[in-house]
Amino acid sequence: MYTLKKSLGQHFLRDENISRKIVDVVRQSLPSGEDKPEGSDSVRQLLEVGPGAGALTKYLLDLEGVDFRAVELDEEKVRYLEGNYPALRGKIVHASVLDLEKPFRGRFTVIGNFPYNISTQILFKMLDWKDDLQAMIGMFQKEVAQRVAAPSGNKVYGVLSVLIQAFFDVEYLFEVHEQCFNPPPKVKSAVIRLVPREAPGFRDERSFFLLVKTAFNQRRKTLRNAVKPLFDAEALQDPFFNKRAEQLSIDDFVQLTWKMRPINQ
Question: Minimal CA–CA distance to 112: which of 88, 134, 93, 136?
Answer without folding.
Answer: 136
